[in-house]
Amino acid sequence: MGDKLKIAQPWLTLICRLVLGGVLIAAGVLKIGNLQKSAMAVRAYELLPISLANFLGYSLPWVEIGIGLLLVTGALVRFAGFVGAITMLAFIIAISQAWARGLSIDCGCFGGGGTIDPSQTKYLSEIIRDIGLMALGIYLYFYPKGRFAIEK
Amino acid sequence: MAANNNGDKGTRNLVIAMVAFIVAVGVIFSLISNRANSNYAVPAAVSEADGYGIVLNPTSTPKIDVYLDYQCPACKAFELINGEYLNEVIAQKKAKVVFHPLTFIGPESIIAANAAACAADENKFVDMNLALYKNQASSENSGKWQGDAMLAVGDSIGLRSDSFKKCVADGKYVKWTGNVSVASGKANINSTPTIRIDGKDLDRNTEYSDQAKFKAALTAGGVK
After folding, report:
1. What is the ipTM of this complex?
2. Do B22 and A115 touch (CB under 8 A)?
3. Which of A48, A73, A87 to mutate: most B Cβ within 10 Å?
4. 3-state helix, strand, coil in chain A (%, to 5)
């Protein structure tokens, strides 16, 4: 069994890199075309001062693309996996507090964002999805070396 | 073998440098392009101090801010329920009303906001505002407001001047819509419509869709 895991690990790492990296790139690209909406999404969480929320709204999509590119190409995988996991943790905390405080917002994770009708909130599925993605990041932190990576 | 390793390290560092460059340039570009630019052309009725909004009755009090997107269905619903009363308040100069056409739903929002601004220059903003909502498509980003659509809407309210047509065709106030968006971002506007009286939000759950409650909210805010 241990041997099978040893053989599988580089492929598992590759899969984690492609999934987490691909999701991050998609999330970033979908926001780039409408940065005003991206900033609106961050403001709607009511967690940060307005100017900081706006700054994050404008810059986060680029960071997502950057981390996603590192993961997909396989460079600085341990670092990128760590940052990816921390980012997911931040989203989980932000969505959870919005849910707990009774805000009704779209998480804005893939380009939506802002206040929405209470019947349309999808907090639980968003949190579960982000827990899964965080797990991929954690796995990559511990097993950063895999197939088809720029760094050996 | 050693040469291969150095080559690999070189490729790796190159990739990392390229990614860092993309992120840095992207962030800087986004921060710079999402600031208000006071050099952009703005309609005569626009006030930079009022978030670059279109101002009706600049000297009246209290001040009512209306943040909207012409493609937003909830904004159309608000207009159909409470627009008539708000227009009366404007006509009787009982309040200073500032309209902020936002454009986050899509490119057709920009087309509509530009047309509304062009109409403001011809003193027909209030009519154009209502006409746009009545002309709203049944779904967002449908393509209905491409081509000559804005000229047809203008025509429906008797707006046929060459200056209006040129303003629409040239997209004269498209850059202004960016200023409106940036200013509304600083004002923490996160959905449309959003209505404030002297800076205080009305309750979107009760006062936007009820005529009596809306009137009461305005009266409580100082509208006589």
Report:
1. 0.89
2. no
3. A73
4. 75, 5, 25
